[in-house]
Task: structure prediction
Amino acid sequence: MQIYKVGGAVRDRLLGRAVTETDWVVVGSSAEALAVQGFRPVGADFPVFLHPLTGEEYALARTERKSGRGYGGFTFHASPEVTLEEDLIRRDLTINAMAEDAEGHIIDPYGGQRDLAARVLRHVSPAFAEDPLRVLRVARFAARYAPLGFGIAPETQALMSEIAASGELADLSAERVWKEIERALMEPRPDLFIRVLHECGALAALLPEVAALFGVPQTPQHHPEIDTGEHVLRVLQQCAVHDQPLSVRWACLLHDLGKGLTDPRHWPQHIAHETRGLRLIGAVNNRCKVPRDCAELALLVGEYHTHSHRALELRAETLARLFQHLDLYRRPERFAQFVAACEMDARGRLGLESRAYPQADYLRRAADVARGVAVQPLLAQGFKGAALGEALKAARLAALTAFRQAQRSAP
Result:
């Protein structure tokens, strides 16, 4: 039995990056032999085991054969006769098809070190095209390693386009798609993830509502970049620059979906795109089985992001309603994420990335005023039940009215 470190752990060590998890491949052994040594199987249909002490994954060397459609359409063959080279050739990219032995020697039969040096993401073999999930994985790696100068090999891009055109992306489960999107949006260049998918045709298959934004113009005085799809990519880039959480990045990706519904006769204006986009945002959330916090924030940002941009002009009554919709008093963290997403939207415009966004501070101070209204005096006055709720609402409105007047009269 021989054990090798494989995949990302080898790749990232050679790149000088921190290794966060280690995978191993076992050559010349069997499931029964591993079980005797205390390894625990992960699943019945996949020859992967957990180490009894470290909990790291050890996979038997295996080959695979395409037997159906989608990510799960494969038959695996694991036996002591399968060689390391046979196991590595089934992997996606050359930079992920390297192994390292116990002495630190690199086994690299498919040119992974060469492509690391050249900063190229290249598929290992034509079998790459058999797994549609690899389109998303390559796009995610592009988003991760772009700061190091990596790009996708033209022949790999061509294969990705073939997969997108085949229709097999539709066979991927929502859970698998969301897992890749979730990870990719948190990479250093989430905008590149979306761009790569768009350029190979996969975005139209996976997120057609987002793909529809490319080529849709906006008013140049507000959006010097003009193209709505390009604007969304710039907003995502700002999310990464400002280290925003996943919920903010997801909301930013979907915030302008309504512009894709505008009749071209009305371009570049997009009247009521905020409310018209809610149906699309909800559909994407449901189709991708998005976690609740991400889904809810996306709907709120989609509907109210222009409220934030016009915050300094809003009447006290409108501010009060906005805070109620955002559930400010019970979920202040969601309010903070809403403001952050709106600021990323404002910064995601060509040449305006560093422009001040005073609306954010204004909304935060207004929220502090509204949240600072004490309920105790109202209780002391005898208010309770529904009457207490109405009295509290009126007191908050009065506080916001005074705040707004003070701001308008300030020099």
